[in-house]
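Handout, section 4.2: multi-component inputs.
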Amino acid sequence: MFKAAGDPQPVIYSVQLYRALLAAYPSEFRTNYGEPMAQVFRDACRRACREGGSIALIALWARTTLDMIKTVIEEYATGGVHMTREKFIKLSGWAMILGAFLFMVGWLAANRPEYNQYNAASLPVDRFANLAGIPLAALGLVLISLGLLGMLLRYGSKAGASRLWLGLGAVSGLVSAVGAVWMGIDDSGPGWYLFFLGLFFQFSALALFGVVNLRRRLLPRWNGLPLLAGVWLPGIILLSGLFELTTGTMLDSPQAVFNLLWLFSLLMIAGLGYLLQSDPAALSAAI
Amino acid sequence: MPVKTNIPEGLLPLTPAVFNILLALADGEKHGYAIMLEVEQNTQGEVKMGPGTLYGSIKRMLGAGLIEESDERPDPTLDDERRRYYHLSGLGQRVLVAEADRLSRQVSIAQLKHVLIIPEWGRHV
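Output:
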């Protein structure tokens, strides 16, 4: 491992996070090129910090996240996917658990106030949180989408037409991730709309699959999980819209309530991931 | 580019990333970050390669025999000895020339069809 002594904290944390994210690449590629890739990223971080400060580092992270998503897919596609359908389903379960965790951390980090050394309420970790929030949330969304693809493979054959909801959920999650990255680059652009529309459709699709699942009992247990995981976000948006239509005023929910709902929802998603990776007896029935 | 070939035309057209990396290595061996900087400079910042694109391309270019990893490491007092340096192979040089020639012919066609405009004079060339 190369030395990072003397680098500013954001560079050190960024490189550590990037090294962890390299795990997404196929193991052979990571073994051969992981170290030089981390070196190149470290050099790029140093230059970004030196020339443009935090803003340049955020822009670098946004570009690197997109580059990573694209090239991870390319490496798996060109190297051939050396895994069985069962292995993919199992891994997608773990991806869903990790994705729920990363999204929660990213959401909380992105909502931290901007770091100010003169403000007692501002924590030192906010320097890192301000930078890492959006990339973490975007990566979390991509991993949750992978989990939904795993669910599609695992339960698709028995789900009938409702498998479309899982596919829509996976695609919407990716759209939302693109929106999150876009938002990181340009806060005033359409990234915000992509992010929230993607989330809305992803959670709505999960809730609709959940409704079908309550009747068909596709999961081995905890059949209420998909509905519980998906229903609150579209529910609260529709409720807010209805409230505004009837009263003429906006429904103002405290941030803490939102955070609690996210935590609950993402715990349900992590539960789905746990089910997906720990259901080996039924894997042979996958399409 | 999984299959090695000795015919440069068999590898054309190149992707922008591969062409830019070959061009960056045309005047000597470089390590990954130096390649990235040169590509950014050569394209006036229009092409900013991430580490994934850079090393994904390098992997495929090594596989196709377009570039080679240098055996010699620089003096550790001058540079980080863990950096990997790459240089063009003979095939890589021929492919670069062939691609540059192909692009130049495309530009000539664009000129013949009056597509290119000289902004200062505001007239077709």
